[in-house]
Amino acid sequence: MQIPVTHSFFRCSAFKLALLPLAGFAASSLAVSAQTLISHYQLNGNTTDSGSIGADGTLYGSAAYTSDAPGNYTQSLDLTPNSAGNNYMEANTGTSYDGLTALTLTLWVNIQGTLSNNERFVSTLTPSPYDGFDLRVSNNHSPSGFNTSFNVNTINNPAVSGNFSANDSWAFIAVTYDSTLGSNQVSFYTGNESTAAAFLNSGNQTGALDPSSLLRIGGTPAAPTSDRTPPAYISDVRVYDGVLNLSEIENVRNAVFAIPEPSSYAAILGMGAVGMALATRRRNR
């Protein structure tokens, strides 16, 4: 027999209490910005794209997963096996980025060795004439104090960030790009697992994104057979189709803490079972 929604089972306080953790988790999983999340690779043991494009990725070289991950994630992309190899994740995003005049790129990185110039974190840059965007290592190479460069449709005169620190620890990196501004179109933000996101510095780039169809994490389509892989773990890569403000960027940083630990799932299910049992017992009295 179908139980009507007005039944005491659903009005039971124990049942409502049992659902509270699930409700909190659902609320924490809502969109963090009014901008569209077009690409989202949690890299939490898979290469699924949960963004609007839905372009699932494929691992190449010796890229694998590690149990070292930020927040409540349980795995991240491990680019360190066979450090001399070209290890990366690649996805075909088609024409989805073409013509974008603004974007926000966010990711978590954990550096496991000395960095080198031109190693890529995230890139859609094509071979010459170098269309697309590109986030790579630049200047300082120390894991505890390295710079990144952000390019749009070029490999020259990039916007260069201040220092990031991720020496065997997780750093949050965010880059915003707004081509409609007269200057300082690129802004860099930083944070970590215990420190909120904060503005770092700005730089210049111009123009809408020219056509590029491949996205690589840990490499670049601009050098398809060259080793451009940083000795790093990477997690929760996101691309939005507009500029996020600092509050929204902080929401993105916090998103990796919104997924309950495995033990929390058990607790939630246990509370649900207790609530249902109590409701059923009350109903049968």
TrEMBL record:
Gene3D superfamilies per the UniProt record, alphabetical: 2.60.120.200
Keyword hit for Signal: yes
InterPro entries: ConA-like_dom_sf, Ice-binding_C
Residue ranges annotated for the Ice-binding protein C-terminal domain, each copy included: 258-283
UniProt keywords, alphabetically: Signal
Signal peptide: 1-34
Name of the protein in question: PEP-CTERM sorting domain-containing protein
